[in-house]
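Handoff note, outgoing to incoming analyst
You'll be picking up this chain. Sequence as last confirmed:
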Amino acid sequence: MNSTQAALRDEIRELADEAFHQKLISGHGDGADIDEYQIVYQGKPRHLPLEQARFFLTNLLYRSRVH
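Most recent structure output, in case you need it:
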């Protein structure tokens, strides 16, 4: 894993922690593949590519603040 991927994974982990504490997701963690991150949303585990995981979590947190 290069430093860019490591930084992205750290950012995703922080976003996921925030989403978890706000009860927007029910779990998260590293995916089976190094290029994926697992997010448990609405009771279903989702294995997302890192960029997509960041986008998903950012949008989820944004929507929770707007409503």
